[in-house]
From TrEMBL:
Protein name: Phage recombination protein Bet
NCBIfam families, per database record: bet_lambda (TIGR01913)
Residues forming coiled coils: none
Organism of this sequence: Salmonella enterica I
Superkingdom, taxonomy of origin: Bacteria
GO biological process, one term: DNA recombination
A Pfam family assignment: RecT
Length: 309
């Protein structure tokens, strides 16, 4: 894989990266990766307010198959690590810990002449604190045969990682599934641990029909979410979809809020009653996303103001 430096200082400035950070990214965080791929990872982190130097996402070389042409080619794909899901769960401030992975019976199997001892399944639990103070357990169960990656297209033998660490790899996949169940706003993108050594298909994209762009005053949570849907979406890339999930979470919190002070904190950020400073929508979104958040905030704020009269 070519590592020729094709990134100029001007491009780094456009991405807000100084020379020292770029050097660390290239030499320590993503050694051997193409410059364009590293920038892609930085942009992904920037969109989700993550520190790329903490390596919350991975650049995974994958054989990508285009469903339309049937052709395959190797590409670097940005994928979250299970560590990113842990960060997002912790940021929610209702993460109440996790249990130890529980494994099923050990099985001795042979795959194209390669003998492997692996667990039949793994069960993983994470705990989430609910608004009423109760703690709910979310459980995921994953099977080794359904998750392991092969050493190549023409063999059923596991790759080196799944052969060397059959328990640990399955536990990571199971933990990622449990975190997605408990915090669906993290998104549904598979983690690097789940996709390592596997091929990726690009499926056909169905063109969306035009929608009614008339903005109507919301009166409940459903209509607030409808307001988001009716605005024109200028971007359709993966980062925007994940920001949309964050925007939906903001909408839900605004809808549940019963006082203006709390709404102001949700939108503008600041010091909360518990003494912690938290960012608001203005710190999270920009451009059209921020305008959507502002519409939801102002309309809900007007509702509360009118009800107090």
């Amino acid at each position: 894989m070519s590592t020729q430096n094709t990134i100029t200082s001007e491009i780094l400035q456009q991405h807000g990266i100084d020379e020292a950070t770029w050097s660390a990214l290239k030499s320590s965080i993503y050694p051997g990766a193409r410059d364009e791929s590293v920038l892609m990872a930085v942009d992904y982190c920037r969109a989700r307010q993550l520190d790329p130097l903490m390596k919350p996402v991975h650049l995974v070389p994958m054989l990508v198959k285009d469903a339309k042409t049937g052709k395959s080619e190797w590409r670097d794909v940005v994928m979250p690590g299970v560590g990113l899901y842990r960060i997002q769960a912790d940021r929610s401030e209702n993460y109440a810990g996790s249990g130890e992975p529980v494994f099923g019976d050990a099985i001795e199997g042979e795959f194209n002449g390669v003998r492997v001892r692996y667990p039949e399944w793994c069960k993983y639990s994470v705990f989430k604190k609910m608004p009423d103070g109760s703690v709910v357990e979310f459980v995921a169960r994953e099977y080794w045969l359904e998750n392991y990656a092969t050493a190549g297209k023409d063999t059923s033998a596991p790759n080196a990682m799944w052969k060397k660490r059959p328990y640990a790899q399955l536990a990571k996949c199971c933990e990622a599934q449990a975190l997605r169940k408990a915090w669906p706003e993290t998104g549904q993108q598979p983690t690097a641990e789940e996709m390592e050594g596997k091929a990726l298909d690009i499926t056909d994209v169905t063109e969306m029909s035009s929608v009614d762009t008339t903005v109507r005053p919301p009166t409940n949570k459903t209509s607030l979410n409808n307001l988001i849907s009716t605005r024109t979406q200028a971007q359709t890339d993966t980062d925007t979809k994940e920001l949309s999930a964050l925007l939906a979470g903001f909408t839900e919190k605004i809808s549940d809020s019963q006082n203006i002070d709390e709404m102001d904190l949700l939108f503008s950020g600041g010091v909360w009653p518990d003494g912690k400073r938290r960012p608001g929508a203005v710190n999270t979104f920009s451009g059209e996303m921020l305008e959507k958040a502002r519409d939801v905030y102002e309309m809900r704020r007007n509702e509360i103001t009118d009800s107090d009269k």
